[in-house]
Specification:
Two copies of one chain form a homodimer.
Chain A: E1 2-3, H1 6-26, E2 33-39, H2 43-59, E3 62-68, H3 74-85, E4 92-95, H4 105-111, H5 123-131, H6 139-150, E5 159-163, H7 170-178, E6 185-189, H8 196-201, E7 205-208, E8 226-229, E9 233-236, E10 244-247, H9 252-255, E11 261-262, H10 269-285
Parallel strand pairs in A: 1-11, 2-3, 2-4, 5-6, 5-7, 7-8, 8-11
Antiparallel strand pairs in A: 9-10
Helix pairs in contact in A: 1-10, 2-10, 6-7, 6-10
């Protein structure tokens, strides 16, 4: 069993990005610039955005944080998005989700110029990814593909089961795994799947994105399988200072001995998700996807 | 075994559309209007477009055929698209594919206003369909979903195998079948799939979109399965006046007795594909998807 080290891989990628940015600056180019819109003061959102800003600093990106209070109107938010769409200094930007209930998220996401949509949530990016055209791929699927590639995991002709069909993880993951670059035979399982145990136990590559802590037991995993655990659920814990710890969808201690490769939680997919946003921002700055 | 009669279902839907159009006209509304751009004189394209025009007449739509010669430039084509995008009388339009090699198809498809993209090929429509937002769904998947619904075929929790991952059939079909409306557990199989026989034989619902005549044999089909045959390959025949006949992906005579439901070729998915374009045009005219 080999542990897939997301922390180390993310660190490697950040070093590569930093080097590329230094090259751009040395050639007289513009510093890549990520902007983030944060509405309200949700604790989770605050800390996610803080990480993103910190990550930008670490690789030499410029970053901007734009704050709105919870009572911001849709019109105000759309005006700011229009401003960022037209600001040549901003290469990419994100609107941290969730938004307050009075603001329809899809209207906001579709207002972002897809060429600056480094979260990859705009329908044009989703559609182009599905069609197989260059596109910004959302962070978690992008990060998982990077892990699979960098660990040299064979995917062609393999049975891949993706548990979960969310729009930001399960669905794009299943599409990417079954496209020609990866060539896996992909099954999407979900809450309505019958015989989930058998479906999972048939997987050479099992990607779990349920958000149900330790749901995947050893009897649901094939001997020698590759297991990618996307779940990160906070559970109360007396062992940590914060009073909680992160648990994956996989009962790690029981499942790991059966696997050829497995991602831990934390330290697997999570750090890769963070680094994907940096990769997309660099792709936006260098115009590698859209000119 | 029940035969799924695509001809009859398409006829029913056309009658429904005709009635709706009569209602619109009676209320003083505008006649729905489909325009088609045809480049060159490819025999297949000529006859497909002729069918589309004829179908429009049958349901009371206005139709326009815009022809260009093979040597049309991309600029000329884009200018015409822009004109149709801005023509309030045109509710929806299509550009018949394939285009001559010197014209990049994706540039053309992306230039169509997605609100008039009744073929459902624009990335916005593909992306919105994947995200689960209202969208124009491309003709063949739309037609298959209609057949499944109108025949009352249970899909929730069923194992559905889609053989083929094309952008216009296999891929969207697999997404639609696994979304909440259908709730099937979907596997996408393709040319690189190992043990294709076993994968197919595990399907409660088998959707074949390979384009390989009579490839699916009885030993690849589960007893009681629903089989949807999307394949339509022209093979030479001495029995027909035209000198060819259409064959599906399924060896019908051998497979049919095992099925609970099966679509024939011709007369199954084909007529539904034709009628889907009319349905999308009506949805465009009535602004049910985009206002």
């Amino acid at each position: 069993m080999q542990l897939i080290d997301g922390n180390q891989t993310a660190k490697d990628i950040k070093a590569e990005i930093k080097q590329q940015v230094e090259g751009i600056i040395a050639r007289g180019g513009k510093q890549p610039h990520l902007a983030a819109i944060l509405v309200g003061h949700d604790g989770g959102s605050e800390s996610y955005v803080a990480y993103k800003i910190k990550d930008c600093e670490a690789v030499g990106f410029k970053s901007s944080l734009i704050r709105f209070e919870d009572d911001v109107t849709e019109t105000e938010l759309l005006a700011k998005i229009e401003e960022l769409n037209n600001d040549d200094d901003v290469d990419g930007f994100i609107v941290q989700l969730p938004l307050p209930r009075h603001i329809p998220e899809n209207n906001i996401l579709e207002a972002i110029n897809y060429k600056k949509d480094v979260d990859g949530f705009h329908p044009v990016n989703v559609g182009r990814m599905v069609i197989g055209l260059p596109a910004f791929v959302s962070a978690t699927p992008y990060g998982i593909v990077e892990l699979i590639k960098r660990y040299g995991i064979e995917t062609s002709g393999k049975n891949c089961v993706v548990v979960g069909r969310s729009q930001i993880v399960g669905r794009p993951m299943s599409v990417l795994m079954s496209q020609k670059e990866m060539n896996a035979t992909v099954t999407v399982a979900h809450s309505r799947t019958k015989n989930l145990k058998e479906v999972c136990a048939n997987a050479d590559i099992l990607i779990c994105a349920l958000g149900s802590p330790e749901f995947i037991k050893a009897n649901m995993v094939k001997e020698g399988a590759v297991v990618i655990d996307v779940g990160t659920t906070r559970v109360p814990s007396q062992e940590t200072k914060s009073g909680f710890r992160l648990k994956g969808d996989v009962l790690f201690d029981e499942v790991a001995p059966k696997c050829s490769y497995i991602t831990p939680v934390p330290g697997g997919v999570g750090p890769m998700t963070r680094v994907s946003l940096l990769q997309n921002t660099l792709l936006a700055a260098t115009k590698e996807i859209y000119s």
